[in-house]
Amino acid sequence: MKLTKTLLATSALTVAAGAAWAESHMSSEMTLVSWGGAYQASQQKAYSEPYMEMHPDVAVVWDESSNEAVAKLRAMNEAGNVTWDLVDVVASDAIRLCDEGLAMEIDPEEDLAAAPDGTSAEDDFGDLLVSDCFIPQIVYSTTFGYRTDMVPEGVDAPSQICDVFDLETYPGKRALEKRPINNMEWALLCDGVAKEDVYDVLETDEGQDQALAKLETIKDEVIWWSAGADTPQLLADGEIFIGSTYNGRLFSVIEEQDQPVAMMWDAQVFDLDGWIIPTGLDDAALARVKDFVKFATDTQRLADQAKYISYGPARASSAPLVGQHADLGIDMAPHMPTDPNNAQNTFLYNYEFWADYRDDIDAKFQAWLAQ
Amino acid sequence: MSNASEAPTPDDGLRLMESADTGPVLAADGTPLKRSLGRALRRQKLRALMLIAPLLLFVLLTFIAPIADMLFRSVENQIVSDTLPRTVVALKDWDSTSGELPSEQIYEAAYYDIFIAAERKLHTRLGSRLNYELTGASSLFRKSGRGLDDIGEVYQDQFEDLNKAWKDGETWAQVMGSDAWLSEANSWGKSSGKLAPALELRDGIAELLPKTAESYSSFANFVRVDDGDNPASEDPWSLVYAALWQDLTSGADVSAYSGPNADLLQEAASAAQDFESISFTDGFAEIDEDWVDTPIWQTIKTYSPKYTSGYFLNSVDMKKTPDGPALRDEDQRIYGLLFKRTMFMSLVITISCIMLGYPVAWILANLPARTANLLMILVLLPFWTSLLVRTSAWKVMLQQQGVINDVLVWLGLVGDGDRLVMINNQFGTIVAMTHILLPFMILPLYSVMQTIPQTYLRAAKSLGATNWTAFWRVYFPQSVPGIGAGSILVFILAIGYYITPEIVGGTTGTFISNRIAYHISSSLNWGLAAALGAILLAVVLILYWAYDKIVGIDNVKLG
Amino acid sequence: MADTANSEAFVEFERVQKSYDGETLVVKDLNLALPKGEFLTMLGPSGSGKTTCLMMLAGFETATHGDIRLDGVAINNIPPHKRGIGMVFQNYALFPHMTVAENLSFPLEVRKIGKSEREKKVKRALEMVQMGEFGGRRPAQLSGGQQQRIALARALVFEAELVLMDEPLGALDKQLREHMQFEIKRIADNLGITVVYVTHDQTEALTMSDRVAVFNDGRIQQLAPPDVLYEAPENSFVAQFIGENNTLDGTIKEIANGVALVELDDGGLIDAKPVNVSQPGERTRVSIRPERVEFNVDRLAEGSHTLKAEVQEFIYMGDIFRTRLKVAGNNDFIIKTRNAPDQVRLKPGEIVEIGWQPEDCRALDAN
């Protein structure tokens, strides 16, 4: 009895001493880069606040630069002075940062926490580990919201992606993102191309022309957005009938601002958002960041984030833990893009395709827009 | 100065001057006056220079240097030759227009280059660079980074099957490294905080096994510097096995080798002839069919020089092809249109600023100082609000469900069904930018007008001129320098604006700067952005020069 | 006096008032008439209303009340450019972006005069001011005096019959100013134009004008030819403002035969000519020019009153001597004497007796 006690105490001491040693070798400051707004707030509540409770000595600084993170990181890297410790980016940017050598490759087994049931991180994240540098947090989708009060009388509310292209049944302005990604796929889909052939068609010049020609049919009625907040605002002002944006933005227009807006989930495009660790961190900073990332991407933390914003956690094991909205008290699961009811017809952002074709198609798309 | 007692007095100089009737005029201390003056002036200049040195340094660092950097980036293209040095050399003799595939030597060079680049994680960077020129290059290089291992592994496996010793990094180190290096490396520890000793090749090994020596050196250097490990104990890349096989099968006389593991090497030399082999061409073809097609090789060859005109050609809707510069496909031409539009809209914005700013400046200049200062605050007020806020305010004003349309509908001037489209087009951009840039027109105008006394107008009237004639013939010509200064300011600011056009410009109201911003922050094509910026800079300088020729730059007054 | 000149007046102010703020009058009840060809100077300290009068005449200010007539026509509502009045401004107001010839040509152009005639007139005007070769220069390339001439030529080139000049010589140095005074006067006389000239320099006013209107406090204090103004100021402001002047304060004792006996405040008695005093017991300020004071009292008439004076200072000024005395408590009593061979030079500390002809000493209001 006495012996076990002593043993326990000794081992506890050893563990504590070990932890203290590790702690002393970690930087006490950490700069996290994110998108600002409600999304960053959800990260603060779900990740950084609990982390700081555990480590009161650590100061966390937030920088709202994610939308220009790639360019800034490259500039920092060229100047040899990387001041960011952890950067929140969309998956396509993560791939690019990884390609450019600006993001560090991670080892999921070592750097990420396993699921509570013992499933390894690699299996728990599964296919969402789209790049060697990318640590996914959420699945979000680009989808449509429409004004319920502007649906013409005697017509059903829009329920399919091709309703966006149907000016006769659904007159009014549309809002689409000022880039080819997603729009080209939707256009082809509504021009008779089968879903599985979309990218094969889009690889060809003819396919690109076909998509642009389809978009041409609604061009005069489109307001092109470049900031995620544009479409919700345009919807709230009644400037447009239907518009694409991130599903979380629409959630806040519908549920938080109580606007007469509804979701149209058809052909929503899934995309991922997550962390990357910049290359070139010193050992202390890297140790701290790795410690934080392991914590902030564990099953519970990812599920917690969904309390504050309607984006789906990137871990399979987090999904059952998603509960109710922290303020509104509504069940969040039906608002997740990944909810089976919403995800009947979906796309996953084709990272490989767009990494190759982005420059080329964007040039064509912009030339088409400018005419 | 310090020994004033001994220093000659001016009187001495006078006496000297009197005594020396001929010859150069001398200063008080007897030195020629000219030299003395020169020295005094030089000292003065030096002191003045030191006084402005911080400013000069600041201007150089923050103004000249970035522009120089931008100009450099617009032609810089070293990434290709730095990442693929062997390939670039090998491609020199390949005729890119022949339609024939490159030779096996070129594939071999590319194998070594891309393999090493992939180890150093540089291949994807090159991929994104070449993707600007050839769609698909990005994924091609990403794939190849992983795929090239397969080629070397063919040989690695066979060597290792032949003798387990080949698996061991130390075997390789003993063969390749000199004895001195080996003993030094074996006593090195990571905790020393220093890099491991640099590889010193064994005498004669570079002649005996040239490719192996070269690739092993690359490997050793990488392990030592990039990983901070000891090359003597690390297992080499599969590339090194492929190199050894090549050396052994191309007639290396290993019997001449007498260092450690000579038996191993001889055993391998005789076995290597019967190894299963794979040509580099086939290896590349296995990774991606695109490697056995000409476009990727043409692109690499076209962009292999250290400096390229490619970005500039791209900025004027052209592209480099193996046959020389050519126009881009019509559906990809955008920059010419955008340059023209930027110029045109900036001109319209400048003119609207003159039209609106002139009367305001006139009123300000002719009001009593107190009232003028109060009004001046109103003029400057836009400066104190965020650009985004100001632009977004115009959105609220101009959109179809916005304030102006609401008022027009309420007044019955416009039907509810056909509200005016005043935003997300050129009109919106012009309105919002005129508003934002107006102070830059009013301020120089105001300061010039303040210096024009009212008596000129009175004089003109007393001489019989009507109000209009007095204004047009007497006042206006004197305010032209203010218009000139304001116009230059507004125009140059306008062509560089991108936030406002991005928010309210829609598709027809965007500027060339929006594309520059896109290439800086989204596509990361900084070379193209720099070339576009350089062209914009050149246009501004040309306009400035033309203005100087036509109006005269002395006729610009900011105050 | 205005009434008498009415019929032949070329320029006429009648009961003109001007207020800028609606509370105070800058010009109070101005009546003034000048015949064709007259050179009239408005003289006064700054703020006396003289420039306002000129500007009302030019049309740049409107009269709050009253009429201004030019050649018998009320011009109150005629805009400046239709009045046909030439004007020379204080800083010349030559248009800096035009050459001299273009400046001169400007009034002719706006009158739609043909090119050849324009050139002829410009040439003639330039020759008149002896600036014939300067037609191609810009104003900035000319000296102050030359600019002045051009400004004058510009005001005359369209043959205005009335020319207004607002302190035109203010910016020139003394020598040039004197030269230009003569020049302007000569040209004005030659052309027979009417000139209204504003200045605060009394020498300028005295040397150039046919008549001088002395302004103070929004009113004309005296309107008279220069000699009258100097010799016979009508009130103590004019006496003080024009030329150098000695003043002594006192009380009228009696007035008889056009001579007033004044008892000075220290008890001394003097004779003076009553100007705007009428009754014994009235306070008065007597004024006497320094050059009219006599200290050789033998030259005065029998029984003249004299005063004792103590010499304070003797200043040699070349053509004249200037002696400062203490007289009846006034420490700044000045005597000017000509530097003649037999002239006495007084020494400080000397006590002398001074006196004057009663008509040289004017008993004025006590202000």
TrEMBL record, chain A:
Q: Does the keyword Signal apply?
A: yes
Q: Does the keyword Cell inner membrane apply?
A: no
Kindly give the InterPro entries that the UniProt entry links to this protein: SBP
UniProt keyword annotations, A-Z: Signal
Classification via SUPFAM superfamilies: Periplasmic binding protein-like II (SSF53850)
Q: What residue range is the signal peptide?
A: 1-22
**Where exactly are the transmembrane stretches of this chain?**
none
Q: What is this protein called?
A: Putative spermidine/putrescine transport system substrate-binding protein
UniProtKB/TrEMBL annotation, chain B:
Q: Which PROSITE patterns match?
A: ABC_TM1
Gene Ontology BP term (one): transmembrane transport
Transmembrane feature ranges: 48-68, 343-365, 372-389, 427-448, 480-499, 526-547
| Compartment(s) of residence | Cell membrane
Q: List the keywords (alphabetical).
A: Cell membrane, Membrane, Transmembrane, Transmembrane helix, Transport
Where does the ABC transmembrane type-1 domain lie? Answer: 339-547
Q: Does the keyword Transmembrane apply?
A: yes
Q: How does it sit in the membrane?
A: Multi-pass membrane protein
* One cellular-component annotation, GO: plasma membrane
The organism's superkingdom is given as Bacteria
Q: Tell me yes or no: is Ion transport among this UniProt entry's keywords.
A: no
Q: Which is one Pfam family of this protein?
A: BPD_transp_1
- Family under the similarity heading: Belongs to the binding-protein-dependent transport system permease family. CysTW subfamily.
This chain belongs to the protein called: Putative spermidine/putrescine transport system permease protein
Organism lineage reads as: Bacteria, Pseudomonadati, Pseudomonadota, Alphaproteobacteria, Rhodobacterales
UniProtKB/TrEMBL annotation, chain C:
Which keywords describe this protein according to UniProt? ATP-binding, Cell membrane, Membrane, Nucleotide-binding, Translocase, Transport
Family statement drawn from the similarity comment of this UniProt entry: Belongs to the ABC transporter superfamily. Spermidine/putrescine importer (TC 3.A.1.11.1) family.
Query: Taxonomically, what lineage is the organism?
Result: Bacteria, Pseudomonadati, Pseudomonadota, Alphaproteobacteria, Rhodobacterales
Originating gene: potA
Q: Which SMART domains did the record assign?
A: AAA
Q: Name one GO molecular function term.
A: ATP binding
What is the role of the protein in this entry?
Answer: Part of the ABC transporter complex PotABCD involved in spermidine/putrescine import. Responsible for energy coupling to the transport system.
Q: Pfam family of this protein, just one? A: TOBE_2
**UniProt feature coiled coil, ranges:** none
Any idea what this protein is called? Spermidine/putrescine import ATP-binding protein PotA
PROSITE patterns in UniProt: ABC_TRANSPORTER_1 (PS00211), ABC_TRANSPORTER_2 (PS50893)
What is the scientific name of the source organism? Primorskyibacter sedentarius
Does the record bear Nucleus in its keywords? no
